[in-house]
Amino acid sequence: MPRLRELTIETAAPEVREVMRQQEARFGxxxxxxxLMGYCPTILKGAAALTMGIEQAxxxxxxxxxxxxxxxxGLNGCPF
Length: 80
What we know:
The protein is mostly helical. 64% of the residues lie in helices and 0% in strands. It contains 4 helices and no strands. The longest helix has 17 residues, at 41-57. It is globular and about 35 Å long. It starts with 13 loop residues before the first helix and ends in a 5-residue tail after the last helix.
């Protein structure tokens, strides 16, 4: 049993709701890390900044990055 209940758009803080709505529009669902990191919006923003930094650095080709994301999701037992 998880220690924290996952946040929903209805239970999240206003600044987190906007992130959740954007994810829902982009991916069709709110990503699981957001549902938990949303309890601390500064951590959520920091994680998003780290992800954007990696993506914008351009050191990993887009196709390879997609394969890495899929591989890691499989390792974690997450359907992708």
